[in-house]
Design goal:
Length: 233
């Protein structure tokens, strides 16, 4: 509804506010206000993650500008999301260099502001997105924009389109909707707690392995996802 440019800018600004709030949360006295600190950090981490995902999806705004390279564009989007784990590693390195965690989150907040400016300059607008899609699909761009259709009718049209897609290949789509969410949730569950597993398994060597994983995982995603998309195209 908002378009790639507006959506990405909005996501970056949400992440900016969340990073600034996390900077404040780190400075709260945990003994005097433990509930406030935990609650603020919990909310900001979730909203900041959602904002980052929304910002990364802005790359898909170029989908119809390059209709023969659509999976490559999707690969760039996935690579950007996988590469975001470097941000956490950056905060750790700044902390080891003597920079406080609070200042590290503030730096991330400023970086999100710069990203929002970059999105405004680089990403296509909603009108441009529909214009290019109309050229490729040979339909009127105005007929594709359903943002003006509000409420239940809008939801009904969306669900009708989803059901129509599912009926094309019912078995494949059923397996897709079963496997992908399960696999994604399983991966996130493992990625969120692998550090503790490494400590249990490898003891003193765990920290070096965790750093190695953090450094390798992101570059592989940044490079591997677009390459895989290119092969799929």
């Amino acid at each position: 509804v908002a378009g790639a440019r507006s959506g990405a800018i909005g996501g970056a600004l949400v992440s900016c506010v969340c990073m600034a709030a996390l900077s404040l949360a780190v400075g709260i006295d945990a003994q005097e206000h433990p509930g406030l600190q935990v609650g603020l950090m919990w909310v900001c981490f979730i909203l900041g993650e959602c904002g980052g995902i929304l910002a990364g999806l802005g790359i898909n705004g170029w989908m119809w500008h390059y209709p023969c390279q659509q999976m490559f564009v999707v690969g760039l989007c996935n690579g950007a999301q996988q590469g975001s784990s470097l941000a956490g590693f950056l905060i750790v390195r700044l902390s080891e260099a003597g920079v406080g965690i609070s200042e590290g989150f503030l730096l991330m907040s400023v970086m999100n502001i710069l990203a929002a400016v970059g999105f405004y300059v680089c990403l296509p607008s909603r009108a441009e997105y529909f214009k290019e899609a109309g050229k490729v699909l040979n339909v009127c761009a105005a007929s594709m924009d359903q943002a003006a259709v509000a409420g239940f009718l809008h939801l009904k049209l969306r669900l009708k389109g989803l059901v129509g897609i599912l009926r094309l290949f019912p078995i494949e789509n059923l397996l897709w909707f079963l496997v992908v969410p399960l696999g994604q949730c399983s991966f996130l569950w493992w990625a969120g707690g692998f550090a503790y597993k490494f400590v249990d398994w490898f003891g003193e060597d765990a920290q070096d392995l965790i750093r190695f994983y953090s450094l390798v995982f992101s570059p592989i995603g940044i490079l591997g996802n677009p390459v895989a998309g290119k092969f799929m195209d």
